[in-house]
Amino acid sequence: MTEEALTLAEKLWRAHSVAQLDGGTDLLLIDRVLLHERTGGVALKSLADAGRSVMAPQQVFATMDHIVDTLPGRSDKTLMPTGTAFLTATREGALAAGITLFDLHDPRQGIVHVVSPEQGIVLPGVTLVCPDSHTCTQGAFGALAWGIGSTEAEHALATMTLRVARPLNMRIRIDNELAAGVTAKDLALHIVATLGSAGAKGHIVEFAGTAVEALDMEARMTLCNLATELAAFGATIAPDDKTFSYLKGRPYAPTGDMWDQAVALWSTLRSDVGAMFAAEHVIDAAAVTPMVTWGTSPQQAMALGDTVPDFTTASARDSRDAYDRALSYMGIAAGEALGDLTIDAAFIGSCTNSRITDLRRAAAILKGRKVANGVRAICVPGSSQVKLAAEAEGLDRIFTDAGFEWRESGCSMCFFAGGESFGPEERVISSTNRNFESRQGPRTRTHLASPETVAASALAGRITDPRALEALP
């Protein structure tokens, strides 16, 4: 009898299937639940009000990231009018439930999708859920990770299971090598622009190929993070020696003999030869160049140096109304070069690009240079540990000497809900993951790009290819 060839996602799914239910759904075992203060306190309170308890508190972790301010000297009193209540409710709920909380002044605090890998909470082969869209970031470790709603979070907390419709499998194979100066963020935006914002709807995406294998773990997280902008259920990358090396010694990773046993198991977590995918796409990494968005969706992206596409080019993914509205909102016209427009602000941060490697690459561009007059530039590290590591290396001084604000860790201006924002019609170059209308503040115009492009643009005062900056003597 020939053993069935399975994809990585199918292996993870089958290993966690408790029961097959009607309507193409399964009841899945959930290994880890992550919470943050914007939705976590609500879920914990609702659970307690219903007279239910957290089933496995040792497998639940909460952090303060979405609403907490990132200004120096921050406290429970936040810019968001009701923010204090969210922080307090999460703290009280976590304490009562006995779950681990990375509170405001805990050295482990930070963005949930930065903290989890940092602490070794996500591990290859686990199922992990969080009431946050970009949970698939953590699929970079060979985990099955996806975003859920508050009601689902409540169910997962009470039962450590979830009823989930079975997704299809998609493989995006990325061959060849990225050119010098081209990053995982550029690759991700290239893929979203190519496949469209619904390009992976209903699928678990497996990223594979030589270009993916060449990425370090933090770049792999960036790539999986943007799978959310393909409408993917989740994203995975088969774990390898880079994965194991990243996790070894992390606080919640296995130790001793358990580590060796875990690595032996994790090494089997890859798609079998002959495994069938419902859809497959091939991307040539060598053809990717630094990218930037021109519109109000991540799929409205183009290569730096190109001009804003006309409707004929964009019509494969955008309706006429959506295209016209994006141009009007962003204050641009078809055929326009974005580099001809001045920017008002630059932002480096968010779960997409706030890790130490992101800050190092941006600092290498900023070192010895000054942000252009009139540009407000902000850097928000992804976690307190990232901030401390950056300060130990002197990166904070490079940012501040260049003219950047250096903040405490958190989600900050990735989105406006926390109260931090840029101004109406201000044009912002940003390392975040979404450029929707008013995403970074009421009527703010956001252009997504890599940390390198954000840094270079902040220096030039206009959207700039970092490869075009002249080398310092």
Commentary on this structure:
32% of the residues lie in helices and 17% in strands. It is built from 16 helices and 19 strands. It has helices spanning 8-16, 40-49, 83-97, 112-119, 150-159, 184-195, 210-214, 217-225, 241-247, 256-266, 311-314, 320-330, 356-366, 384-393, 395-402, 451-460, and strands spanning 17-20, 25-29, 32-36, 60-63, 100-102, 127-130, 144-147, 161-165, 168-175, 203-208, 234-236, 279-284, 291-293, 301-303, 345-348, 376-379, 404-406, 427-430, 445-448. The termini are far apart.
| Radius of gyration from the alpha-carbon trace, in angstroms | 22 Å
User: How many helices in DSSP terms?
Assistant: 16
Mean pLDDT: 96
Molecular shape: globular
Major sheet description: 5 strands, parallel
Which structural category do the helix and sheet elements fall into?
Answer: alpha/beta
Low-confidence stretches: none
Tell me the total number of β-strands. 19
Distance between the termini: 67 Å
Spatial arrangement of strands, main beta sheet: 5-4-3-6-7
- The helix fraction, in percent, is 25-40%
- Beta percentage is 15-25%
